[in-house]
Design a protein that fits this description.
By secondary structure, the chain is an all-alpha fold. The chain contains eight helices and no strands. It has a single domain, classed as TerB-like (Orthogonal Bundle). Helix content is about 75%, strand content about 0%. The protein is globular.
Amino acid sequence: MFKNMKQFFEERIQLTMSDDESGSDEQSLRLATAALMIEMTRADDEVTDEERRAVDDVLRDLFSISEEEAKALAKLAEAEVDSAACLFDFTKMVDQSFSQPQKQRVVEMLWRVAFADAHKDHEEEYLVRKISDLIHVSHENFIKARHRVEQDLAG
């Protein structure tokens, strides 16, 4: 499975976030970030089409990739989440690799996925809060990210 993921990334996913990082690190970081988005869709035990579309959209925006690449990345992330024991490995990679503004953007993207089905469950809020804590995003920035998403959806 890892060989297939590596081949996919080498052939299809362009590296756009940082020229300094090695391709392998970048691939792993993208997969970890996508896995957090997939976990968000599963927080309330009901994955909707709106949430799936939101994941594709945020991955496209976050990594400047095509719709096809975003769908493929989400599919790989689903398989990774299915085989993972916990979120810690994913959050550790994001925490160690992203700058504070990038981490805040990840939290905002998590909120976008949470609100995609026009309903926010307690489980979804808990998961965004937990991930925010694990990637060291302050409570203030956690709230600001939520308000930005709510304002975007209202206006």
